[in-house]
Specification:
Elements lengths: L21 H29 L2 H12 L16 H22 L5 H4 L3 E5 L3 E7 L16 H14 L6 E6 L12 H18 L7 E6 L18 E7 L1 H7 L16 H7 L9
Helix pairs in contact: 3-5, 5-6
Length: 279
């Protein structure tokens, strides 16, 4: 065929198309992933800045101790829910034991509606709510009544079995005490101190009492009824062990006391008519 005249040879042309380099083709994905990661971090930071202090501490606690191995209880600094659940279980067991012990008091039937126990971030809170006639403290008197002293002795026995620190608070209603040299501040602090002395004399190790607080009428239980006798109360807090351990670390400030909120099911029992009575 090649020798035949007038016949052109068949030419086959192979074109090579140069493709993109593999590294060049995936570079945009890496850049996009970095951008998305940076935006997510920005949104988290913005969310934390607007979150409450409790949330900020919880998130910080998680990054400091993701497994929760360094904490025994669930305070506001805890990073996991398991430690909090365990702590509430222990505090509920303490609550049941204290309730059983108080039921042995002859006058408990008259005072059971005036004793409120609740689990807070600080620990087990025991509130002794006053009545109009004065159940735990007579009106205007910093010394406990016989029934109040008997209850504190029982509490000392039960609390003495625990390793937790104890905090004692005194509260009054908003009615003025009536003396220029002795106000609700002195009365609330003196009542808390009187409770401390009875607890210490009845078997509770004095070194276990970490704070004695007098709040006067600054933390009313019933804010809509500031003169209600139930605002006059002594509060005993069995502190979370983990909270004390956390505060003992260098540079960690003490946690502020959490104001107690009335339990809905108990409000009817403690709401007593006020008649302008003093403390």
């Amino acid at each position: 065929m090649s020798g035949a005249k007038g016949v052109r040879p068949i030419i086959i042309v192979h074109k090579k198309v140069a493709g993109h380099d593999e590294e060049h083709g995936g570079a945009w994905k890496v850049a996009y992933a970095d951008f998305v990661t940076a935006m997510m971090a920005l949104f988290i930071v913005l969310w934390l800045l607007s979150a409450s202090e409790k949330v900020q501490k919880a998130v910080g606690g998680y990054f400091q101790d993701p497994t929760g191995a360094g904490r025994q209880t669930g305070t506001t600094n805890a990073g996991t829910s398991e430690t909090l659940s365990l702590n509430e279980k222990q505090l509920n067991e303490i609550k049941e034991k204290v309730q059983q012990a108080m039921q042995q008091i002859p006058a408990f039937k008259d005072m059971q509606n005036q004793i409120r126990m609740s689990i807070t971030a600080e620990g087990l809170r025991i509130d002794l709510l006053e009545t109009k006639r004065g159940l735990f403290f007579d009106t205007g008197d910093p010394k406990p009544t016989e029934a109040g002293g008997e209850l504190l002795k029982v509490l000392a026995t039960e609390l003495g079995k625990l390793p937790n620190k104890i905090v004692i608070e005194g509260h009054t209603d908003s009615s003025p005490y009536g003396r220029p040299d002795y106000s609700n501040w002195e009365l609330s602090a003196d009542r808390a101190n009187a409770a401390r002395r009875i607890l210490a004399e009845s078997g509770l190790d004095a070194s276990r009492i970490s704070q004695v607080r007098g709040f006067a009428d600054q933390r009313l239980l019933l804010k809509d009824d500031p003169t209600n006798p139930s605002n006059r109360r002594i509060s005993i807090i069995v502190r979370n062990k983990g909270l004390d351990e956390q505060e003992q670390k260098p540079g960690v400030p003490p946690a502020p006391a959490a104001a107690a909120k009335p339990a809905p099911e108990k409000v009817a029992a403690v709401m007593l008519p006020a008649a302008g009575a003093k403390k």
